[in-house]
Structures are given as C-alpha cells and as structure tokens.
C-alpha cells in the first residue's frame, strides 16, 4: 500500500513534509485536504486523524501527524543513515533540539502572530516581538555553523526555512539578519531543483495573499 500524505498546500507544516519527501525521493500518494472548505472536519478525515490537522501521514494503516514527527519517521524508515537525520546520538539530539525550538518557539510565535486573522482578529504585535527575538537568536547561532544544527544540512533546516520565508512573505523584515540570509541562500542551493519555488516561495506568497484578502475584508 503506498504512503498517503494528507496535506493542504497553504499549510506551512504540510510543506515541511512535502519538502522532505522530495529530498529523500519518496513516492507518496498526496491527498489534498482543503482547510478553508472544512475538509479536515469531515468524518472520513476525523476517522484517520481525530486531531483534524494536516499534515497527516498514513503508512499501511498507521496514521501519524505532527510534521516534525513525520519527517523524522520518514527518514528513519525509508532513508536510514541519511545525513539529514544523523544517527550519532548527540548530533541527532541537536537536530531534535532545533526541531522542537521551531515548533515550540519560532514557528509558534509566527503562528500566534498571523493565525488570529482567520478568526476575525488582528495581527498580534506581542507575538511578532517574540518572533523577532527568536530570529535574532537564530542569526547569532548561525554565526558559528553553516546550517542550523551544524555543518551539514539536516531535517531541522526544513521547518526553520519554511518559518522564515513565510515571515518574510507576510512582510516581516528580516533583512538585518545577515547570517540567516547567507544560510537561506545555501539551503536554497542545496534543496532539490524546483523545491524553492514550488514548495517554499510560491505557497508562502499564496498564504500572504489570503491573509491580505482576509484583512481587507475585515477592515
Ligand atoms: N504542530 C503541527 C501543526 C499542525 C496544524 O496546526 N495544521 C493546521 C494547518 S497549518 C491545521 O491542520 N489546522 C486545522 C485544525 O487543526 O483543525 C504540525 O507541525 O504538524
């Protein structure tokens, strides 16, 4: 049975998984879940994922959600030993640390900044401040390493790239973060051809356009 990936193209964590899938050359059956149309609350999707979120992976009847769990599962199962997810315990712990940092701090603050728009509320300036602080800490760390978790591209670079490029797309100025800028250029070069445009930049701009449309309707 092929792997199935439930995703929405505008969902940043869905893009994280789709980028990884392309990086390790996996064949997955992609199943679009249109969040704006409420597909995620339909009984057939709730039967797969009662937490009703995308991305959700189904591997031979086993359903897994949480993008960062999915990407590490996929490397471990289908590309074991790949440098994207090192097996050395301390290197792996460092990669995991960045994955958790993105999930709990970096992307969390960006999410808290813009997601209220979907519920008729404005952008949240306090969350923007948290995001900027975290981005500065990332920039400081990138003074010392080529990639976020060391000198090799890892799975941790994927969600952090998605977070940062979305921030830029929605108008957050990160221009003063010179180490971040250099790292992003490196990641752009390293990812598989066309990933940067189709899974990083274009969908971030599409989400930007949707947010613009929502905020102009409510003002
Ligand atoms: N931490 C989760 C976040 C998943 C998430 O919140 N996905 C959103 C789309 S970006 C979603 O499915 N929202 C609908 C819902 O939760 O009901 C991950 O990284 O996968």
UniProtKB/TrEMBL annotation:
Residues 88-207 form the GST C-terminal domain. Pfam families: GST_C (PF00043), GST_N (PF02798). InterPro entries: Glutathione-S-Trfase_C-like (IPR010987), Glutathione-S-Trfase_C_sf (IPR036282), Glutathione_S-Trfase (IPR040079), Glutathione_S-Trfase_N (IPR004045), GST_C (IPR004046), Thioredoxin-like_sf (IPR036249). GO terms for biological process: glutathione metabolic process. Residues 1-82 form the GST N-terminal domain. GO terms for molecular function: glutathione transferase activity. It comes from the Eukaryota. Belongs to the GST superfamily. PANTHER family: GLUTATHIONE S TRANSFERASE D10, ISOFORM A-RELATED. Homodimer. This is Uncharacterized protein. The gene is 107368272.
